[in-house]
TrEMBL record:
Name the record gives this protein: AMP-activated protein kinase-like protein
Pfam families: AMPK1_CBM
PANTHER family for this protein: 5'-AMP-ACTIVATED PROTEIN KINASE , BETA SUBUNIT (PTHR10343), 5'-AMP-ACTIVATED PROTEIN KINASE SUBUNIT BETA-1 (PTHR10343:SF84)
SUPFAM superfamilies: E set domains
Entries under InterPro entries matching the protein: AMPK1_CBM, CRP1_MDG1_kinase, Ig-like_fold, Ig_E-set
Limits of the AMP-activated protein kinase glycogen-binding domain: 155-219, 235-307, 318-392, 402-466
Length: 474
């Protein structure tokens, strides 16, 4: 398997941990038994519940009311209170009440980046980003690397570059002295990055960078991956860009005229992004992009699909009238993504953002797992097929040939006890997973028994004195 980035396994000895597997919050929107199931954990914050309710399609989410025990907003939207057990409240709604609205072209996959708050020094995912320098000290070279520059400091004996991209190392990132300052070239992935410089052992920020994190005053740099362009409009005085990625703020992103073309370079998160241009106060779609969609207010927007192409295939079922696929990548909307019938079955290519997803096929209203995929995941007791898009690590467990099931649980899936199911190839159990940069904790669950990875001698202790295996993703 090809890995994007280097995998470094490290040993960390910590006597006390705050990780408590059973204390994980269980806010979920699930599909099961022809019902849409909404699980709300009342220990969650108002913001977390509002995000969940928006995913569930509520036009007027009342998180404050729900925390006080008022479920009127949910009942008015067609949800029924099914069960309350401890902190978890379950609501459900029949799928046949939701209707079907298949989008044949383009296929819209969610661009929601979720509630990933990141951790100090390791920034959370963002929908978009634009750099802001007084004097440009960081820029991308044609060779594909990013150059960091510290002007001056000619009297310094040693200068280091440290950031999330090298795990904030105080040994790596040695910068080269030039006649005007110090430089270092780094291979960065598109997205948001945090960094600082270390001059003769003294940490310092980038005084030419106006973007600073809320913690530790780390400088922020966005590695760009997309350029919006609009040809013509030579006499236009001002052209701005707005879209789903910036909450349709028509004033924030101003295009620049270069060589007769209006353009703006930025970082754009993978997924489906709707957008329009505002030319001297008049909204227009992108004339160079034929993909459009009508929003709830009747506006026509241009659409971008960024991500990995995944081909879903279901063999057989020649007598079926319709086959859909639904999963975490489209918030489990059952009538949205329609497969095309072939001589052997059904198929469809989709562009999906990097991540780990559960999915199922819907054959004439019946939900089934993928018969060709032996890897599964569970959520709320529902078994779904599992797929990792842009997987960058393969978990392996050698032996255990007589085991009936092997699952993987870790910090990347909230230590879900059902985990991701590994498949056995006659020698070892494996599963490919997409992991975010930074520290990851994990365990295998063999026939219900939790074990650390016997192939990884490095671990850190937990509060149960049973240990968690540790690895770092760069």
């Amino acid at each position: 398997m090809k890995r994007s980035g280097h995998i470094v396994i490290v040993f960390v000895a910590i006597c006390c941990m705050t990780l408590h597997v059973m204390a994980q919050k269980r806010n979920s929107l699930l599909i099961g038994n022809d019902k849409l199931v909404l699980l709300i954990d009342t220990r969650s914050s108002k913001t977390e519940i509002e995000q969940l309710l928006k995913k569930a399609g509520l036009k007027s989410p009342d998180a404050a009311g729900i925390l006080k025990g008022d479920f009127t907003a949910l009942k008015n939207d067609g949800w029924t209170l099914a069960e309350k057990q401890g902190n978890i409240i379950e609501f459900n709604r029949p799928l046949n009440e939701l209707g079907q609205n298949p989008q044949l072209h383009p296929y819209l996959i969610t661009s929601d980046v979720g509630n990933n708050d990141g951790s100090p020094g390791y920034p959370a995912e963002v929908n978009f980003g634009i750099n802001n320098f007084n004097k440009v000290t960081v820029h991308d070279l044609p060779t594909g690397v990013t150059r960091f520059f510290v002007p001056g400091y000619q009297q310094s004996k040693r200068m280091l570059l440290s950031g999330d991209f090298n795990n904030w190392s105080t040994l790596k990132g040695i910068m080269t002295k030039t006649d005007s300052g110090w430089i270092a070239d780094v291979k960065l992935k598109p997205g948001k990055h945090e960094y600082k410089f270390i001059a003769d052992g003294r940490w310092m920020g980038d005084r030419n960078n106006n973007l600073v994190s809320d913690h530790d005053d780390n400088a922020i740099y966005y590695r760009y991956n997309y350029t919006f362009k609009l040809s013509g409009y030579a006499n236009a005085r001002k052209i701005t860009l707005a879209g789903s990625f910036n909450n349709w703020d028509a004033n924030a992103i101003v295009l620049e005229k270069k060589g007769g073309i209006w353009q703006k370079q930025l970082y754009l998160h993978e997924g489906t992004q709707a957008y329009r241009f505002l030319v001297d106060g008049k909204w227009i779609t992108d004339p160079a992009n034929p993909n459009t969609i009508k929003d709830a207010d009747g506006n026509i927007n241009s659409v971008l699909n960024l991500g990995e192409t995944v081909v879903f295939t279901l063999d057989g079922y020649q007598n079926a009238k319709k086959v859909y696929v639904a999963g975490g990548f489209n918030n489990w909307k059952p009538g949205e993504i329609l497969l095309t019938k072939t001589k052997k079955g059904w198929t469809l290519p989709l562009i999906i953002p990097a991540g780990n997803y559960g999915y199922k096929f819907i054959v004439d209203g019946n939900w089934i797992t993928d018969p060709k995929n032996m890897r599964y995941m569970q959520d709320g007791g529902i078994v779904n097929s599992f797929i990792a898009v842009k997987a960058n690590y393969t978990f392996k467990l050698t032996g255990f040939a007589n085991a009936k099931s092997v699952r993987l649980a870790g910090s990347f899936n909230n230590f879900n006890q059902f985990g991701y199911t590994l498949a056995f190839n006659g020698k070892e159990w494996t599963v490919d997973v997409n992991l975010k940069p930074g520290k990851q904790l994990y365990k295998f669950i063999v026939d219900g028994k939790w074990i650390i990875d016997p192939g990884n001698k490095l671990y850190e202790q937990n509060q149960y004195n049973s240990g968690n295996s540790v690895l770092w993703i760069e």
